Amino acid sequence: MPTLVETENCDAHKSDDVLIHIRYFANGKVMFIDWRPAQLTGQEWRDLLLRAAPEHYRTFAGARGFFRLPSGIYNSLLATLTPMAAE
Questions:
Q1: Does pLDDT of 7 surpass 60?
Q2: How distant, in Å, are the alpha carbons of 26, 45, 48, 64 from that of 81?
Q3: Which of 5, 45, 49, 84 has the fewest CB atoms nearer than 10 Å to its CB?
């Protein structure tokens, strides 16, 4: 079960945001991504997140990035994947 990230004394971010970190290979493919559902590859999970919530993505130097998703958006995405797991 995913863990929600809590922040201390930070007005800019809600304490129920979910952080999903990504590391990329030099060719832009996903090397690592947090909280990946088992039925998706890292690339598929990243693509789904980018389609569903592009405004919550930030790029870092050094072939890294992260999503800071409100927990409601994150839980909705997981709920849409639940029927896929039953197939």
A1: no
A2: 29, 11, 10, 25
A3: 84
Q: What is the torsional sign of CA 72, 43, 28, 51?
A: negative
Number of other residues whose CB lies within 10 A of the CB of residue 12: 5
- Cβ pair 22, 13 in contact under 8 A: no
**Which of 38, 1, 2 is CA-nearest to residue 20?**
2
Residue from 82, 78, 27, 16 nearest 53 by CA: 78
pLDDT single digits (tens) 50-74:
999 999 999 999 999 999 999 999 9
The answer to whether 33 touches 41, Cβ cutoff 8 Å, is no
